[in-house]
Structures are given as structure tokens and as C-alpha cells.
């Protein structure tokens, strides 16, 4: 048995990471010494909104080993020595001993620890400073579990997977987990997307009251930071909850689909600011506690979030790093190199004493840094910092973002295209999707743009919604989500809104995509039709299911137009079936032209007479297609070389099988995205439904042109 009782070297990071080596080393210093290391951390190159928010200081900062500020607070009858909540990490996602170490450290430091869903480890149950979780699957939950700690958390959603349920891969469901969760060994434990007894804010109120009555404990509600977070939080407060845990985009997790992790939800800083604002407006802020979670990497992050309106901050990934995590994103596999998230099979364990020691030091060092920040700001207590937005200043943020945060700052309209279109992470993800034909599962927080990686196109600044409380999400693991689209007035049926452009492909690739399209009820776009696959060809020779042309006007055919906003007025009223908006032959961004064309057709009352197909060689994956549909496209024409990128240097054999798996995987990912947004029928609900999108600090003129609300807006 391998026993981990020391730190391993941090591997070289080849891809962009939020949890950089510098952040890991900072946390390790705190954990090894229990002393403050650095405050007012700044990352000048980061696009994360919270990193662009800084404290106003008129003097040089200093760090003391004996800071004076008081960090104590009390809520719902619970005393805390420091405003730190140690995540919500389940027994199963973690390997047992880390769960014990977290609960022990919370007791020793008089903070709080969340237990996550999935029942309660018997050793954890001995500790008192825990919040137990009541999640959608109710794994291992009974009255003894619910009354074990100081409070109960109704988990509606989490930041790494808004709108879908929890996921513990079957390879990690060993006998101890089977017993605790009361589920079969070796079978995936997938929680339902919604609570099937909570479909409205009133239903939630009944559950809150019932749990309070049954346990006599304070009840919190955990939600992901999504489009309607201000209204959701105000509803939770009205229903009598003691507080809310808001989990922002980028929060860590043991297992989640990449497509959900990277494309759904909004950052915690925008969610906290907007939630605090509406609670104050509605007179609901007193005696209601906001716990802010998701990418709290330092005491500086914590101080900013408290100044924006949080009472307490949650540190999950930071706690794991304190116990030795080296950020390899393999929690879901069960072979964690530090034993923290390894499957429980007796081969690897974390030494509890080591874990407790590192965590206690980390909490003490983190708290001393937070107290030093207060001292430097001239504040005597943590209570004085809450909601004190006037201490903050935004550097280079959009007009919208500054308004939502409620702070002063310099406005800046950032170039939306800064990054690499096909980076290592995207290629690796598409390679796995192609090989498995199922949504790719990963772990830990998102590294996607704009917060970590640099955005490569406008669409990278947009996030879709995750349904929770105000409407139910749809569970694609248990329910069919209709991803089909009809074109040409119902003549063409597509099982998903994706068509592949094979105009520049070799014959081998053309055959592979045509065969796969036929098998999966998709379509291909080309100049000439391959006769045996005619029923899937949208071609310029007129021999397939639809015809397209660059210049000639044919009834019941598609006109290919350049992505140029100046041509929109010229094409309105033409006697064609629809328009193929081609970014490769235009001088405008596809997102802007598709949205403008959809809007114009609606304004003149003829939108239902035309199809809009969005075409570009700069599209990468199903999330791009999904967002373009939300902007107004009926379907998206993607480049065949997505498959070439996915194959990379790998085996180029069995192209038909690879193309089939790629399309099948994309179809399932679109079902996941739609289900997370609470959408059952994709075409009837999604096309042009901009309300399901929010922008993250996107340039104001571009956001207005797209007619999308900013994240965190009321």
C-alpha cells in the first residue's frame, strides 16, 4: 500500500491552467508553515473578471505575523473563527482519508466543512463542524445523516456541471462506496439532473421547511451560478432558507462532461455581486448568508468576493492542493497520483495526520493573509468588509461588467479574438470524443476561455444556461432530448443541427462522412453528389436533397452569401429556401451576421420562410454549433478537418467508424447542453433563443449587436 505523507513535485503544465504552479506553490507555503505569504496578488495578463478587480490602496502594503483584524462571524447560530467553508467533496469523489482530514481540520480551526453528496463516511460523521448534503439522488441519506452535522445543504446544482446531476464513475464505486451510497458495486452513480420533487421555488420552500422541521438545523441551498442567479437567490431567501452556496463557473469536481464544464454557467464574482444587490433591494439580505464558491485561490480572491457581497468563501480545490493535489485532471479515473481521489481499493491512501496538519496550516495561513488584507485596508473586522464595493476598482472591464459589480473602474473593449483556435486541450478533447462516441468526462475546474485560455472567437465569450429551481432541467441520461432539426419546410430531417463541409476533403474522407451522415440522419455539404449517398448531400449540382448556389436564384434552393452584414438587406425577400452564411468568404464574424440576419428576418415577419445555415472553417465542436443555433442558425456547417484534427498523429484507418463516433458524440453533447438548459425539443426552443446565452465581459458594442444580456444582469 502506498501511503502519501509528503508533497510530490508539480508536473510541468503544458496547457493553460487556472491553478498554475505559482498558485500551487503559494498554497503549499501556507500549508507547510501556517504563515502568511503574499497578499493583493495580481495577474496582469489574466482575463478573469475577478483578477481585473483590485483594491484601492494609497500606501505600500505590509504583512504581519500578528495581524489585528477580527475574522470571527456568526450566522444561523453557528460561530466561525474565520469565514472559510471547506468545499463540498463527496466520499467517493475523494478516497475517504481526505474526507476525514477535512472534517477534522474544520473542527480544529472552528471553520466548516461540506460533505458532498453520497452519504456520510462513518469517521466523518463523528465530527460536528460539517454541513451534510441532501442531493437529487439521495444516495445514503437518512435522518441519522441529516442530523449529524451543524446544517443541511439542499444541492440543486454545482458550478462544474450546472443543469445536470452528479457523476461518480463506476470504476470508483468500490465496496465501501457501495455500502455508503447503497448502490451496486462498479455501476456509475449518476444523480438525476433535477430533484424530482422540486420543480418550482414553492416546491423548494416545502423541502426547506420539511428539513428544518425534521432536523432542527439551519438549511442552505447550493446552486450553480447561472443566468437567473439573482432571482433564484432571492427566491431561496423568500422560501426561508438560512443561506445559499453559489458555485461559480470553473469550480472543481470529481467528474463532469467537458462540454458542460466549459460552456455552462457564469463566474462567481458576477453571481455574488448581482445576488447581493437584489437581496438588498428586496429587503432580504439580513440574516441570510451567502457562501461564494468556485476558484477561490487566495485570501485576496476571498477578500474581493466578500467586498462584492459574500459572507463566507468556499475553498475546495485549494484544500485539495493543500493536501497534495498536483492538478492532473484525473479524479474521475480513480488513479490519482497523490491518492486524494483514488478509488478505494487498499492500494493508495493519504495519511490522515499529514492531511490534517497541512489543512490546519493552510487555514491558519490563509486566515492570516485575510486579516492582513483587512489591516491594510484600515478595517477592524471581516464584517466591515462585506459589501464594501467602494474599496474596489475595475481595471479594463466592460461597461456592463463594472455596472453589474457595482464598482468604479476604467472601461475597455477587449479584442474578442486573442487566442489559438485549435490548442492542445481542444485537440485532445476532440480526439477522445472521436474515439469514444460519447461525451468526454473530465475532472477539476474549467480551463476554457475567456477566464483561462485566450478566446479565439466571439463565441468563446458566451455561456449557456443551466436550469435550476425556476424551471426543471431535462435528464438526457434518463429522458430523450429531441435534438432533431427540419430544413426546407420539413423536407430534410437532421438528427442534430450539424452538417459537415466536405468540399475540400479527399475521396476517403468524403465517403466516411457521407456514410456516417446516412447512418445517423445527418448531412454533408459539397459541390458534387456521390450518387449512392444522394439522400444526405446538400450540393451545388442539384442531385442531392438540397441545392445551393453562390449566385443563381433557384426556388427551394439555398443561396450562399458571404458573412458580411452589408449584404443582409440585399437578400431579404429573395425567392430561395434559405441562406448559407459563409464566414470563409466574408469579412465579418459569423456570430454577428447570423444574429443580424435572424433579427432582420424576424423584424420583417418572414423568419419562418427561410433557413439560416451558418458555415465556417473556424468551427471546432458541438458547443460552437449549439451557441450559433441560439444566435439564430437553423443548422451549422462545420469543416471536415475537425476529424483530421481529432485523429492527429494517430491511426488514420477506419475513417467511417471515426466519423460516425464523432457525429454520434456531438449529438449526445448537444442533448446534454439542451437538457442542462431545461430544453426538451431543440429546434422548437433553441433557434434564436438568445435568452439562454450570457456574455462574460464581452465588448459592449459586440454584445449589443448580438442582443445578448451580460452575465449577472437582472
TrEMBL record:
Residue ranges annotated for the Glutamate synthase central-N domain, each copy included: 429-486
Glutamate synthase domain mapped to chain residues: 36-379
Pfam families, per database record: Glu_syn_central, Glu_synthase
Cofactors demanded by this protein: FMN
Catalysis performed (reactions): 2 L-glutamate + NADP(+) = L-glutamine + 2-oxoglutarate + NADPH + H(+)
Keywords linked to the UniProt accession: Amino-acid biosynthesis, Flavoprotein, FMN, Glutamate biosynthesis, NADP, Oxidoreductase
UniProt family annotation: Belongs to the glutamate synthase family.
Name of this chain's protein: Archaeal glutamate synthase [NADPH]
GO-annotated biological processes: glutamate biosynthetic process
UniProt GO MF annotations: glutamate synthase (NADPH) activity
Enzyme Commission code: 1.4.1.13
Xref: InterPro entries: GltB (IPR024188), GltB_archl_type (IPR043578), Glu_synth_centr_N (IPR006982), Glu_synthdom (IPR002932)
